[in-house]
Amino acid sequence: MHSWLINWFCYVLSSSGPALKTGKSRIFYGIHKDFPCVAVVGLGKTSAGVCGSENWDTSKENIRQAVSAGCRLLQDLEVKHVEVDGCGDAQSAAEGAALGLFQYDQLKSKKKTKVTTQLHRSADSVGWQKGVVYAEGQNLARLLMEAPANHITPTAFANTIEEKLALHAERAWIEEQQMGAFLSVSKGSEEPPVFLELHYNGSPDSKQAPLLLVGKGITFDSGGISLKPSPSMDAMRADMGGAATVCASIVTAAALKLPVNIIGLAPLCENMPSGKATKPGDVVMARNGKTIQVDNTDAEGRLVLADALCYGHSFNPRAIVNVATLTGAMDVALGSAATGVFTNSDWLWEQLHKASVVTGDRVWRMPLFQHYTRQVTDSQLADLNNIGKYSRSGGACTAAAFLREFVTAPHWAHLDIAGVMSNKDEVPYLRKGMSGRPTRTLVEFAAGLSPATKLEAH
Ligand code: BES
Ligand code: ZN
Ligand code: ZN
């Protein structure tokens, strides 16, 4: 822009009302012949940077929020194409635009205006493109999570991902693998279970040990015989959020051609009550031979993950990260501020935390004390009980302690995403609905693992 134009525009802006607050936007009409409609957004202090107490980069968050607000305002005005200023960080601007404009309205007759976006006259088209790919990854997870359970069945989920990458196995293979814990969850449903396995080989060294990502894939969690109360049960269509974010992050890693090897596993099934369903008190056997007394059929996530984690060890992974909408207690503990991370590895924690500061999709470390292990290993009939003996106390921690019984790898992290599963208005650049969190953090984490050498130092 010419300097006289900037001066004139500053005058127009200052005389249009009070100074724009961070993340707020204002529309101007007819100020430029090529841009009949211009949304000006408040970015706050550009020098804000990484904030030690918030555990994120405030400047990046402000850009995401502001660009999202501006794009949405223009969308409401039925503007079909928006050129976006890079705001000094084109990746964050692209994320704000693509995340902010996403809306799941496939099943509505009246749809929102389809808006295309483009970076406005900036050199950083690489940053912009990266931001678009990161956001599209999260939007894929949001789509899978938001879609109703009668559309995204285990088979439909696997087919959707298969179109993009994968390989999947059906009941006979699951039985052959002796995944008794996974099968016990799927038994009450008419929908067949599916075990989804994705391999992305991006490392120049094909023998490089893979990063293993495991996602809980309950396409609907009614609670089973331990039936959940009806209010909000519909939200349990997103109980495959772990599988959705894991698969979406692998699709994104492939789009970015990250030089890492990644294997994704997703045990997919419904948790339903029926005459064939698992009953409270039943004892089942996991793939590693451990027996589990299922005292509450609603604590099903840890059962499907137990078998997937056992199977995952056979790939000799460099690190294992499992992601799951595992416990309501996680939501009680942290709400939607951050994903809870339970890990046996300080190194893995640091990598995940570092990635989350960049993406703004935060993580917070939670304990893996023996204190909790004792509460799940004290079972009347079996080696383990699927619920802690003091029922609700420390529910997120006892669930993590249960999973740990199926892990022998030195670098393992369990991400409980129950609290961040959906968004009301807490994250300003995501509309209300299923959040797709923490897909971008997983992608950033995987990107940080290359070059491969860093890990072997530990
Ligand atoms: N899928 C739920 C956890 C959940 C709750 C996720 C709310 C997202 C939002 C999980 O399978 C479950 O029901 N867990 C039980 C465990 C309990 C029976 C020990 C829970 O949290 O109540
Ligand atoms: Zn459940
Ligand atoms: Zn569940």
TrEMBL record:
GO terms for molecular function: manganese ion binding; metalloaminopeptidase activity. Its EC number is 3.4.11.1, 3.4.11.5, 3.4.13.23. Keywords: Aminopeptidase, Cytoplasm, Hydrolase, Magnesium, Manganese, Metal-binding, Protease, Signal, Zinc. Its cofactor is Zn(2+); Mn(2+). Residues 296-303 form the Cytosol aminopeptidase domain. Pfam families: Peptidase_M17 (PF00883), Peptidase_M17_N (PF02789). The keyword Ribonucleoprotein does not apply. Transmembrane segments: none annotated. Its main location: cytoplasm. GO terms for cellular component: cytoplasm. Cytosolic metallopeptidase that catalyzes the removal of unsubstituted N-terminal hydrophobic amino acids from various peptides. The presence of Zn(2+) ions is essential for the peptidase activity, and the association with other cofactors can modulate the substrate spectificity of the enzyme. For instance, in the presence of Mn(2+), it displays a specific Cys-Gly hydrolyzing activity of Cys-Gly-S-conjugates. Involved in the metabolism of glutathione and in the degradation of glutathione S-conjugates, which may play a role in the control of the cell redox status. Belongs to the peptidase M17 family. This is Cytosol aminopeptidase. It comes from Sander lucioperca.
